[in-house]
Design a protein that fits this description.
Elements lengths: L2 H7 L13 H6 L5 H10 L13 E6 L3 H12 L4 E5 L5 H6 L1 H18 L16 H16 L4 H6 L2 E5 L1 E6 L2 E5 L5 E10 L3 E3 L7 H4 L16 E5 L3 H13 L2 E5 L11 H13 L3 E3 L3 E8 L2 E8 L2 E7 L1 E4 L3 E3 L13 E2 L2 E2 L12 E3 L10 H16 L18 E3 L4 E6 L2 H7 L3 E7 L4 H6 L5 E7 L5 E8 L2 H4 L1 H9 L2 H6 L10 H13 L3 H15 L2
Parallel strand pairs: 1-2, 1-6, 2-3, 6-18, 8-9, 8-14, 9-10
Antiparallel strand pairs: 4-5, 5-6, 7-15, 11-12, 12-13, 16-17, 19-20, 20-23, 21-22, 22-23
Helix pairs in contact: 3-7, 4-12, 6-7, 6-10
Length: 538
């Protein structure tokens, strides 16, 4: 039994204080029901007592989101002495206020939408069918609590990680002070990793603070469906949640300063999603200017100029989804010479900060704000921080990462590699091919034929340098192109791979075959015709 396990069995008999969540932490796990109590018991247990440090740690990790968890558990599995510090909830944004709850919400929203559209499939839904948003959120909390075991304090302790609950701050060249109700401790490290993540950004919109608003960190505490909701920001978070609430039946106003949604995606890809969102009932106010918020007796009034017309709409809730802000405050970066800017902690390709003994991973330093990106970066940190590299050889670098991503709207938009505009900026000549889903049998049969697959192939080769998929399951389908790009397999490999029929993933092969057909030249065909004519003479 570990020292920490012994303490845990003692319950609250220790002289240390019981761990009490602050107001911010409590706001993330409302309501106080059995599911959230299970969640908190796993990721922020009230009877936790921080272990007593015993010598120098090989690696100390600040922040127990995805990057911190992966770094800690891999290092411990290799035999390193590891400490993990978390002041809020183990699992970070992904488990508590990000990927996990949002996808639970999105799945339920699609079920509601499917029911409303069931007549297309011969199902006649009688009038008066009841919808229960409270049950939707209870299901989400139940499943989140179930998943939370994977990120729990007790599990990581059993895996050999010393877990400390409290605020971690650099106090010297090789020391970190942990302060909190679970017990103040001073940790000595050989290497340290900053994995403090990011938080929701809030725009300086006049009246927003006074009126009150939700972010991705608080929206999942809702227990009642807002009849009217305004969403500020039409990036991935804003689009996913705006569409979900519209499918539940809320009147949704989506406000974006640019022209159209998902400004980073190809316009025809974003347009497909935008049209579906409009069909779902979302009111899009794009090119929004001069936004202000006013608290009224009827709710919260949003005033905005869109395409030269002023709109005054009243909503019950406002959801802000305008990006992320790195958590660089309060961890003593200046004490150890770690530089940062508005984008987060500065790192090199090896994920070293300006202090070579200290590394960073995840949202705190990455332009890719994805769970899977944090996972990949953590593995780079392990290789670079824990192992010797004679003559500077054997380092891993972020430059080699092939990073796919997906926005989980309906349909989904997934991408990997570069876009055509990026290729032009980089001076890379590419051939671009697009195959529409309305020519894919399974997509037609599923009633999910709005979308396409697009690939960018470096001219003169079969090397795939980028791909975009717009489809119901684009996030699952993009992996084939990611593997091909990582392995250097090329378009010929995908073209020569058997894909089961009928599946929507056939579109991957079909779009590659467009490239193959384009390179079947008249000269080649003429040569083959002569060959076949000669063979007929036989």
């Amino acid at each position: 039994m570990s020292k920490n396990s012994e303490r845990d069995t003692m319950g609250t008999q220790s002289t240390e204080k019981i761990v009490v969540m602050n107001q911010h932490e409590e706001s993330l796990v409302l309501p106080n029901d059995e599911y959230n109590r299970t969640l908190v018991g796993n990721v922020h247990p009230s009877n936790w007592v921080n272990p007593e440090p015993d010598g120098r740690y090989n690696i100390v990790v600040i922040g127990a989101g995805t990057a911190g968890l992966i770094t800690a558990v891999i290092a411990a599995s290799l035999g390193a002495k590891v400490a993990l510090i978390e002041k809020h909830l183990m699992g970070g944004d992904c488990l508590n206020v990000g990927c996990v709850p949002s996808k639970g919400l999105i799945r339920a929203a699609r079920a509601w939408a499917d029911l409303r559209n069931a007549e297309e499939f011969g199902l006649h839904v009688p009038a008066g069918v009841k919808y229960d948003f409270g049950a939707v959120m209870a299901r989400m909390r139940k499943l989140r609590a179930r998943i939370s075991h994977n990120d729990s304090v007790h599990r990581y302790t059993k895996l050999g990680v010393d877990v400390y609950i409290g605020s971690g701050q650099f106090t010297g060249a090789d020391t970190i002070q942990v302060e909190g109700p679970a017990g103040n401790r001073t940790l000595i490290f050989a290497k340290a990793v900053i994995c403090t993540g990011a938080r929701a950004a809030v725009p300086p919109t006049p009246g927003l603070k006074e009126a009150g608003y939700l972010t991705n960190e608080t929206v999942f505490s809702l227990t009642e469906l807002p009849p009217r909701i305004g969403v500020i920001g039409a990036g991935p978070i804003g689009c996913e949640l705006a569409q979900a609430f519209a499918q539940f039946g809320s009147q949704v106003y989506l406000i974006e300063t640019t022209h159209g949604i998902m400004p980073k995606e190809d316009r025809d890809a974003a347009e497909i999603v935008e049209q579906q969102m409009l069909r779902d009932g979302v009111k899009l106010l794009c090119c929004g200017k001069e936004l202000k918020v006013t608290k009224t007796v009827d709710g919260k009034q949003l005033t905005v100029d869109s395409h030269g017309r002023q709109y005054d709409v009243t909503v019950d809730e406002i959801l802000v989804g305008v990006g992320r802000v790195p958590n660089v405050e309060g961890i003593g970066l200046e004490t150890v010479g770690v530089e940062c800017d508005k984008n987060g902690v500065k790192v090199n390709g090896r994920l070293q900060t300006t202090n070579p003994r200290i590394f960073a991973a995840g949202d705190i330093c990455s332009r890719y704000k994805f769970t899977h990106a944090a996972d990949a970066m953590a593995q780079i940190v392990i290789q670079n921080a824990l192992f010797p590299h004679p003559f500077g050889l054997g380092y891993a670098g972020v430059e080699s990462l092939i990073m796919p991503w997906c926005t989980f709207t309906e349909p989904e938009v997934a991408h990997v590699g570069i876009y055509e505009k990026d290729a032009m900026e980089k001076g890379i000549e590419v051939e671009t091919y697009t195959f529409k889903l309305d020519e894919v049998d399974r997509a037609i049969l599923d009633g999910e034929d709005k979308g396409f697959a697009r690939i960018h192939i470096q001219k003169g080769t079969d090397r795939i340098v980028g791909a975009t998929i717009v489809a119901a399951h684009a996030g699952d389908m993009i992996g084939e192109f990611s593997v091909a790009m990582k392995a250097g397999a090329g378009a010929k490999t995908i073209s020569g791979t058997i894909h089961p029929y009928p599946t929507q993933a056939e579109v991957n092969k079909k779009v590659v075959n467009l490239w193959r057909k384009a390179h079947f030249t008249p000269w080649t065909k003429n040569l083959l015709m002569k060959l076949f004519a000669w063979m007929r003479k036989g």
